[in-house]
Model the fold of this input.
Amino acid sequence: MSTGTIVLICVLVALVAGIVVLYFVGKRAQKKQAEQQEMLESNKQTISMLIIDKKRMKIKESGLPQMVIDQTPKMLRGSKLPIIKAKVGPQIMCLICDEKIFESVPVKKEVKAVVSGIYVLDVKGLHGKVAKAPEKKKGFFKRALEMAQEKAGAKPLK
Done:
């Protein structure tokens, strides 16, 4: 065999091994996420709260309890989380918000929130309507693509 084919076979074996490892790691992560979601669903409760502020902050700067900061993995301590500062009854608390609903959370409004521990799962307006988040501006290439599709007579992608 030539050296080129031996190198090619070694690279293919390494790629296949990497794909197999990623498959099993992904399955394990998916199971863990399903268990965590089930736990969140079983412990959820509805609370009326006044949202004071919302920001993306590093976990060390967020004002969360020290016990929560100590329990987070060291790799995640530098990442930014969606944090909501809210008045729940007479107490002001810092809560972690779900990434999916963070943009739609109204600031300086009273809402009914579905909470599991310090994690906000869902927000519904209590007084008035909850305003939807403004749409993001389109980038240069997205606008150019839409203009080209419009000129060609094709329907724009959504």
Remarks:
- The chain has a mean pLDDT of 87.
- The domain at 43-125 is CATH 2.40.50.660 (OB fold (Dihydrolipoamide Acetyltransferase, E2P)).
- Residues 146 and 152 are 10 Å apart (CA to CA).
- Strands lie at 45-58, 80-88, 91-97, 110-116, 119-125.
